[in-house]
């Protein structure tokens, strides 16, 4: 089983990203689960979401404390929450940032997802983009399934733009 | 039959679509809200041919449900927490008027302090309203149980409303794979509701549930107890019929590795998933432990529980609710009806995560008990 923890802010799409990942993993033929943990229900507040992927049905109903992967949608959260909490020696942390290059303590990947989002979507919504990068880096989910689910989740023009942005991030991974 | 990744809330909405209710009065509240949204969308898209009644409160939602059900049509409503508290008065009226409403409750803690997260205090507080209460463990069970609830409630020998209880967020907002049955199979399992007894018809005027003096009230309440007891048999029969058509087996309770267990965990709802994994892990270490999942909390399945726990030495009941001075509600019921060494544990209140460590604490404290009732993971100031 692999366990993924997302950190975002209310309204940034961390919960949707966790769900898209679970749906894509299911399309790949795996079992999956995704769920949020809301702090308070408002835009901008720190939010966590979790995805579990396994080749067997998943029977765990508690939060992910020792993730295999951490995805941080907003580097402003680094000062607010401990995104490295409970990580293992081989946990891979991916952060949407242009500044943070890691502390040397943990394996950290940086991607300027905001840059891609502003350039290709015209707004700072990075959830699909960071998934594209994650798919390439980890191979935990196939890019084909990921793009299919993104199209299903966002019909029409927005979906098409998200697919292109996700592909771009995938190539950078 | 299609398989899709969805939340338990969507699974409930899918079940409602397949059950074809004619009236849906519902008021949104976290974490039930997406049920009311999906159903509004389905009605707008003509996927459900129902009157969607927008009401100004949960008291009105359940009142409209009683009126519609009293007129002899299939009705669905859903709520959570404070919403269920506001329904409290009418929940008793619904049961007493013997209207077979199905209500989904997204289990959430009760104020104060204000808390939107999961525990089961809200539905436990409605324990004595005369509703059947079934607690579900996952999205598939939420869908399947909603369908079965109609069949049980509408049985002419039962005619009591049903509450399908699903853990807020842990189920309502968790996506996982769910099998959606096809309409034809559901129609076969659950034909349209045709009321056989009392219902409101302008051509044959009557009134339901209006007045009973001391000569009649006791018998009216006793009739409900008879129906509630009878519902155990009907629930089991309905589960068997469901399994025949859809292949998924359910019952009043679900024992797991209980036969040779020294200690048996007893719990309701989503917690049973993690408990089952813990049972397997403890078994690998040579611990003789089992799990008894309670699906039907009302009716209380004493016989089925006794059968499952007959060989064990001790029982650890984990409740996500609390009765002051007593302990959890399920623990208290077990103490009354089951003649075993039973310990109670309070956990998961207001969304406190129930981790493997929390479960191990309950297990160790059952092996070497200090108190009858223990609050798990309590922070010491």
Protein described:
- The complex is a heterodimer of chains A (173) and B (381).
- Chain A is α/β, with parallel strands linked by helices.
- Chain A has 5 helices and 6 strands.
- In chain A, a hairpin with a 7-residue loop joins β2 (31-38) and β3.
- The longest helix of chain A has 16 residues, at 157-172.
- Chain A starts with a strand and ends with a helix.
- By secondary structure, chain B is α/β, with parallel strands linked by helices.
- Chain B has 2 domains: 2-246, Thiamin diphosphate (ThDP)-binding fold, Pyr/PP domains (Rossmann fold, 3-Layer(aba) Sandwich); 253-375, Rossmann fold (3-Layer(aba) Sandwich).
- In chain B, the strands form 4 sheets. Chain B has a 6-stranded mixed sheet, with helices on both faces.
- Chain B is globular.
- Chain B starts with a strand and ends in a 6-residue tail after the last strand.
- The chains are: A alpha/beta (173), B alpha/beta (381).
- The interface between A and B is medium-sized, with 21 and 20 residues.
Q: Helix segment count of chain A?
A: 5
Largest interface: A-B, 21 and 20 residues
Radius of gyration of chain A: 15 Å
Could you report the average pLDDT of chain A, rounded to the nearest whole number? 93
Strand order of the largest sheet of chain A: 2-3-1-4-5-6
Q: Uncertain regions of chain A: pLDDT < 50 for 5+ in a row?
A: none
What share of the residues of chain A does DSSP label as strand, in percent? 15-25%
The separation of the N and C termini of chain B measures 53 Å
User: Helix share of residues of chain B?
Assistant: 25-40%
Percentage of residues in helical conformation of chain A: 25-40%
- The CATH architecture classification of the largest domain in chain B is 3-Layer(aba) Sandwich
């Amino acid at each position: 089983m692999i366990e993924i923890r997302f950190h975002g802010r209310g309204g940034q799409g961390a919960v949707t990203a966790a769900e898209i990942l679970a749906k894509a993993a299911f399309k790949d033929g795996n079992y999956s689960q995704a769920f949020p943990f809301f702090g308070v229900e408002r835009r901008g507040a720190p939010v966590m979401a979790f995805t579990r992927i396994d080749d067997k049905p998943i029977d765990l109903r508690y939060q992910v404390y020792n993730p295999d992967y951490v995805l941080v949608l907003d580097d402003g959260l680094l000062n607010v929450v401990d995104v490295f909490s409970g990580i293992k020696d081989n946990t891979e942390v991916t952060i949407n940032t242009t500044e943070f290059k890691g502390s040397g303590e943990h394996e950290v990947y940086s991607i300027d997802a905001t840059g891609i989002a502003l350039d290709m979507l015209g707004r700072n919504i990075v959830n699909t983009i960071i998934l594209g990068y994650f798919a390439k880096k980890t191979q935990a989910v196939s890019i084909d399934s990921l793009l299919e689910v993104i199209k299903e989740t966002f019909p029409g023009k927005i979906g098409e733009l998200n697919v292109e942005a996700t592909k771009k991030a995938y190539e950078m991974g | 039959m299609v398989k899709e990744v969805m939340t338990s809330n969507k699974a409930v909405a899918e079940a409602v679509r397949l059950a074809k209710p004619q009236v849906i009065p519902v008021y949104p509240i976290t974490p039930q809200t997406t049920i009311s949204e999906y159903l509004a969308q389905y009605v707008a898209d003509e996927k459900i041919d129902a009157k969607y009644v927008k009401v100004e409160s949960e008291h009105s939602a359940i009142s409209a449900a009683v009126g519609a059900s009293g007129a002899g049509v299939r009705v669905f409503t859903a709520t959570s927490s404070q919403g269920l508290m506001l329904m409290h008065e009418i929940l008793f009226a619904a049961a007493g008027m013997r209207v077979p409403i199905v209500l989904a409750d997204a289990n959430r803690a009760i104020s104060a302090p204000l808390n939107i997260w999961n525990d089961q205090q809200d539905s436990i507080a409605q324990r004595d309203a005369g509703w059947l209460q079934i607690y579900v463990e996952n999205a598939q069970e939420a869908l399947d149980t909603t369908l079965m609830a109609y069949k049980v409630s509408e049985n002419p020998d039962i005619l009591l409303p049903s509450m399908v209880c699903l853990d807020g967020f842990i189920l309502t907002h968790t996506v996982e794979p769910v099998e959606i049955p096809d309409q034809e199979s559901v129609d076969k399992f659950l034909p349209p509701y045709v009321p056989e007894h009392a219902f409101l018809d302008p051509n044959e005027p009557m009134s339901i549930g209006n007045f009973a003096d001391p000569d009649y009230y006791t018998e009216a309440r006793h009739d409900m107890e008879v129906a509630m007891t009878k519902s155990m048999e009907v629930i089991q029969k309905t589960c068997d019929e469901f399994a025949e058509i859809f292949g998924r087996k359910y019952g009043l309770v679900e024992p797991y590795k209980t036969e040779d267990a020294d200690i048996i965990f007893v719990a309701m709802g989503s917690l049973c998933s993690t408990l089952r994994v813990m049972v397997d892990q403890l078994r690998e270490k040579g611990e003789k432990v089992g799990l008894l999942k309670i699906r039907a909390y009302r009716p209380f399945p004493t016989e089925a529980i006794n059968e499952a726990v007959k060989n064990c030495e001790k029982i650890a009941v984990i409740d996500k609710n609390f009765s002051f001075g007593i302990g959890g509600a399920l623990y208290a019921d077990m103490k009354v009806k089951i003649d075993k060494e039973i310990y109670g544990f309070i956990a998961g209140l207001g969304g406190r995560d129930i981790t493997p460590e929390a479960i191990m604490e309950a297990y160790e404290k059952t092996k070497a008990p200090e108190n009858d009732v223990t609050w798990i993971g309590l922070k010491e100031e």
